[in-house]
UniProtKB/TrEMBL annotation:
Protein name from the UniProt record: Exostosin GT47 domain-containing protein
Protein origin, superkingdom: Eukaryota
Keywords: Glycosyltransferase, Golgi apparatus, Membrane, Signal-anchor, Transferase, Transmembrane, Transmembrane helix
One MF annotation (Gene Ontology) recorded for this entry: glycosyltransferase activity
Example of a GO cellular component annotation carried by this entry: Golgi membrane
Length: 587
């Protein structure tokens, strides 16, 4: 009897088949399943991927319970099936090698003024971020005018005022009104040469324009316009301005920012440079309307509230100290003075100007026992005497400063130099003019009485000033005295040690303006909402503010043509009156 085999049944079958293993049912089922999935994948990737409409079909992937896949968490897509690899593309050897290297980093756009900005980062350089480059202009733009000084004014011999680096002849001190040194008979329109000579003493001049924070153009624009205002055609009046612009635009320094880092000085009011038409009867030249000049910054003794390319700087006074001690001694003296007069006024009426309030101010002063009046009508020599004017201001608590023939007048700075609190009647006389040099909070150093209140007889100057508490008056006077260094020009032949004068304040402001512009350009910032007609409002913004809106002074500046906004007949008349006042010796 045979023993039953212990091998599995399929083993018996294999032996019967001549030693070959019969196909297993398990292998068969596995093969069948594999073929099924191959067909599924082939259909999805080979067929559907070629069909644009079918490509919109998506196989739903199982989601995590109560959780959506984030972009980073999505499972990787399976690799696409390709029947044949694409034929190799021949590549140049240089390209082949460069492809193996890491891709180069994209460098930020380089600006030609970046080196100048970086100088400010060098803390060991006291001039870092403060360098000034000065163009070496041909002498026809400056020195030749000084040599021909007799031609600078129709009525005034300007040669005597060109002495002492533009300060004029020294003033005597027979009456003891001035201090012993630093006082000169300075012409009110001499800023061109005073500023230019001060620039020669600037401690951070450079011959390398690539590190300059700003570029100074020593063109005597005020002297130039003065030569040809009377009896010359518009071509003659514009000749030097056009010549200057042509010269500048050929220089490499101009190409860095198209002139937006350039600045120049003119010791005249802005309306002398804003002639709109080519009519011979129109006033002044068109320097400030030249396209290239619009990019530059022009410092003038009176700026336009409605234009962005000019900035107000103080008129020169009679005091030009050569050292800090001169200033400190003068300030101490102004603090200690007795001031018997509540208020004072020096000036002449303007009967031909229906908008002038000078007549009302003179009437109120005459009728007050606490007002000192210095009438400056024709033949009144005291108004031409610096000592008489300064003596009156030194004896007064408040000094009335209405508009002159234009918005501003030199007298405002003479009164502040004397420690007298100025009283303004129009915001264009100081508040929107000298925002670099005077506090934006005008109540700290001045009193404001709207012109209309005087014109309509609704205000008594005496009562208004008497209503200010004595403690407030003392604080205001101290503020005025502390402002003295900022509103005077030091002797150009020297340099104050620690104090900043009007020149220093102006240069710092220009450097800040250009530096801010450069940084905005690099950062891609641009104020697309800037409205040039509202320039006066932007000047009043505090640091960090960028948005303007309705302002209490809108009525004063709502109609530019009323007071010379665009070289209208009113502005031309104001400028002409200013020249007539110079002829009379009035301010």
């Amino acid at each position: 009897m045979r023993r039953r085999s212990v091998l599995p049944a399929h083993q018996d079958d294999m032996e019967k088949g001549g030693g070959k293993h019969p196909p297993s049912r398990l292998c068969f089922l596995a093969t069948l399943a594999a073929m099924f999935w191959v067909l599924i994948f082939y259909f999805h990737f080979a067929v559907m991927s070629d069909d644009p409409e079918a490509s919109q079909v998506r196989i739903a992937l199982p989601r995590r319970p109560f959780h959506d896949f984030s972009r980073a968490e999505l499972p990787p897509a399976p690799p696409a099936l390709v029947s044949e690899p694409p034929p190799p593309v021949a590549r140049p050897k240089a390209v082949e090698e460069s492809a193996r290297e890491a891709p180069p980093k994209v460098a930020a756009a380089a600006y030609p003024f970046e080196r100048a900005l970086k100088t400010a980062e060098n803390k060991s350089d006291p001039c870092g971020g403060r360098y000034i480059y000065v163009h070496e202009l041909p002498p026809r733009f400056n020195e030749d005018m000084i040599r021909e000084c007799k031609k600078l004014s129709v009525w005034t011999d300007m040669c005597r005022f060109m002495s002492n680096a533009g300060l004029g002849p020294p003033l005597g001190n027979e009456e003891g009104v001035f201090s012993n040194t630093g006082w000169y008979a300075t012409n009110q329109f001499s800023v061109d040469v005073i500023f230019g000579n001060r620039m020669k003493q600037y401690e951070c001049l450079t011959k390398d324009s690539s590190i300059a924070a700003a570029v100074f153009v020593p063109f005597y624009a005020g002297f130039d316009v003065a030569r040809f205002l009377w009896g010359h055609n518009v071509s003659t009046r514009d000749a030097a301005s056009l010549d200057l612009v042509d010269w500048l635009m050929k220089k490499p320094e101009w190409k860095v920012m198209g002139g937006r880092d350039h600045f120049l000085v003119a010791g005249r009011i802005t309306w002398d440079f804003r002639r709109l038409t080519e009519e011979e009867s129109d006033w002044g030249n068109k320097l400030l309307f030249l396209p290239a000049a619009k990019n530059m910054s022009m410092l003038v003794v009176e700026s336009s509230p409605w234009n962005a390319n000019d900035f107000g700087i103080p008129y020169p006074t009679y005091f030009h100290p050569s050292k800090d001690a001169d200033v400190f001694q003068w300030q101490d003296r102004m603090r200690s003075l007795e001031r018997p007069w509540l208020f004072s006024f020096a000036g002449a009426p303007r009967p031909g100007d229906p908008k002038s309030i000078r007549g009302q101010l003179i009437d109120q002063c005459r009728s007050s026992s606490v007002c000192k009046l210095l009438e400056c009508d024709l033949g009144e020599s005291k108004c031409h005497s610096p000592s008489a004017i300064m003596k009156m201001f030194q004896s007064s608590l408040f000094c009335l400063q209405p508009q002159g023939d234009s918005y501003t007048r030199r007298s405002a700075f003479d009164s502040m130099l004397a420690g007298c609190i100025p009283v303004f009647f129009h915001p264009g006389s100081a508040y929107v003019q000298y925002t670099w040099h005077l506090p934006k909070n005008y109540t700290r150093y001045s009193v404001f009485i709207p012109e209309d209140d005087v014109r309509t007889g609704n205000v008594s100057i005496e009562e208004r000033l008497k209503s200010i508490h004595p403690d407030v008056v003392r604080k205001m006077r101290e503020e005025v005295i502390n402002l003295i260094p900022r509103v005077i020009y030091a002797d150009p032949r020297s340099k104050l040690e620690t104090l900043k004068d009007a020149f220093d304040v102006s240069v710092d402001a220009i450097i800040n303006k250009v530096t801010t512009l450069r940084r905005d350009i690099i950062a891609g910032r641009e104020d697309k909402d800037f409205v040039e007609e509202n320039s006066w409002k932007y000047d009043l913004l505090e640091d960090g503010q960028h948005t303007i809106g309705p302002h209490e002074w809108d009525p004063f500046f709502s109609k530019p043509k009323d007071k010379g906004g665009d070289s209208s007949s009113a502005s031309a008349e104001a400028a002409k009156n200013s020249w007539r006042s110079e002829h009379r010796g009035q301010n």
